[in-house]
Design a protein that fits this description.
- By secondary structure, this protein is of the alpha+beta class.
- The protein has one domain (6-222): L-amino peptidase D-ALA esterase/amidase (4-Layer Sandwich).
- Helix content is 27%, strand content 33%.
- It has helices spanning 57-67, 136-157, 193-222, and strands at residues 6-11, 14-27, 34-45, 74-78, 86-92, 95-103, 108-109, 124-130, 160-161, 164-165, 168-169, 173-179.
- The strands form three sheets. Strands 1, 2, 3, 4, 5, 6, 8 and 12 form an eight-stranded mixed beta sheet that branches. Strands 7-11 form a two-stranded antiparallel ribbon. A two-stranded antiparallel ribbon has the order 9-10.
- Strand 1 and strand 2 (14-27) form a beta hairpin.
- Helix 2 runs parallel beside helix 3.
- The chain is globular.
Amino acid sequence: MLRSSFTLDCVPPFLTVRFDEPQRTLGWSLLHPGFAVARDIVWVEVRNRDLGPSVDPLAFLAARLAEAGRPDALAFMTSRDISRHHCARREVEGIAATCVTTVGLANAERVGARKARAPHAGTINTLVHVSVPLTDGALVEGLSIVAEARTAAIVDWGRAEAGAAVTGTGTDCIVVASPQAGTPHAYAGLHTAVGEAIGGAVYEATLEGAAQWQRDFAAFIAAGNVAVPR
């Protein structure tokens, strides 16, 4: 486990990041989207049978978090095997960014070409923690750097969709977290140490995750299966 200001615990169906102190967060997820304060970030592994047409996903997720003893957590849902999570840390000029991600690509798409219906489950759920506090604007800018780095990794991974590289999946989620205390950094763009650290950590973890998913897919098909692996 990488040294950072959090612990990482994987006990299926939960992958839990617990910070030493509550962190400011910005991102999108079913619970606590937008700006929020959170100490726990939880990935919940699910199956298609868990989320039928009659199931309220918010109520389902809240019940699972209560089961995990983390009722106030910010949470992701994924069909990816959470034991296949990936971590990367990048430090630039004394500022560290740590990325934890799960990468499933069965639902891969190209931006601007929305599929009428996703044929398979699959998503990329990305958490990035920055070691220094960030202003609201810097959190927004940091979120954009995460999306840019995630997309660069998927493009470099090289899967094509209708002759063009895919850029993500239809259900990707991103959360950026930073400390509450201290003088916040106002910028997190590509020219900053914050932006460089974020981009490097996200790119490395996402590319590793995509390569792992591809190996899992190849093994799954080689075993005679016809469905797409989670």
